[in-house]
Design a protein that fits this description.
It is a single chain. With 114 residues, the protein is an alpha+beta fold. It is built from 2 helices and 5 strands. It has helices spanning 46-49, 79-92; strands spanning 2-7, 30-32, 42-45, 60-65, 101-107. A 5-stranded antiparallel β-sheet has the order 2-3-4-1-5.
């Protein structure tokens, strides 16, 4: 399940700070989150897939990906509650700074994994 967030700036972390854009955007497409105090599994940086995916090049469009099961706590959250939850987790993981805003309601995929 994914929540989309639009950011003005991110705080760079880690050893690759020399490869980070001026607004703090990392050079990666995917960033796996391994912090035990959040449920967030992976960040997707849509700007790095294609600049054409982002209307304002001064913003960072992130997809916050959660691994869940149909009917569990995350799956059952209302869209607005899920976006707020995801934004809070991003702030908690110290990856974002001010300028956080929801971009689109999260979507719930019903595709089979078989």
């Amino acid at each position: 399940m994914t929540a989309g967030l639009l950011l003005r700036k991110m705080r760079p972390t880690g050893q690759r700070q020399d490869r980070v854009a001026a607004n703090g955007m990392p050079p990666d497409n995917w960033i796996y989150i391994q912090e035990p105090d959040v449920k967030l599994g992976r960040l997707q940086v849509f700007n790095n897939w294609s600049p054409a995916m982002v209307a304002d090049p001064d913003t960072i469009w992130l997809g916050l990906e959660y691994f869940c099961r149909e009917g569990d706590e995350l799956w059952s959250m209302a869209d607005g509650q899920f976006i707020d939850f995801a934004a809070g987790e991003l702030e908690k993981s110290a990856s974002a700074s001010s300028g956080l805003s929801a971009l689109w309601p999260p979507y719930r995929s019903t595709a089979s994994t078989r």
